[in-house]
Write a structure and sequence with these properties.
The chain is of the alpha/beta class and 144 residues long. The chain has a single domain, classed as Response regulator (Rossmann fold). The chain contains four helices and seven strands, in the order βββαββαβαβα. It has helices at residues 40-51, 92-95, 110-118, 134-143, and strands at residues 2-9, 17-24, 32-36, 56-60, 75-79, 103-107, 123-126. Strand 3 (32-36), helix 1 and strand 4 (56-60) form a beta-alpha-beta unit. The longest helix is centred in the first third of the chain and has 12 residues, at 40-51.
Length: 144
Amino acid sequence: MHVLAGVSMDDLGCGHTRYLLWTIGRTAMRPVVLIIEARKEVAEALESAIALANVTPVVVPHMERLGDVPYTPAAIVVRIAFESVSEPPHAAIARLGRERPPVVAIVREENEVAEARRLQCDVVLRAPEDIPRLCEAVMKVIRN
């Protein structure tokens, strides 16, 4: 019997996590996709969309290093945006180093495209026109 986890992460910085576990007979564990997004409504929309790709989405609003997350993600989805006065969530990508999972970046503006290139993201999707390809892009980077 395999266990499939649907995960809701509360404040990782304080170590609080909630786990919802469903036992599903003869179903392999789905790959974990880490979503780094500070805005709750955007995070929920990305989580819902990514769940359609038959993966387990895990949302964190901020991350210092990959070890902060108690899972080994198969891919990372991050929205590149310079909309807050504090450090943007996508800044974590630069700290992850070479051994990071593949990154799918979502951008709107040209300066965000340049930032995604600087961070060496594996896939860059432009919102809103490329968002329907999000699941496809995530599955492609997981397979490669």
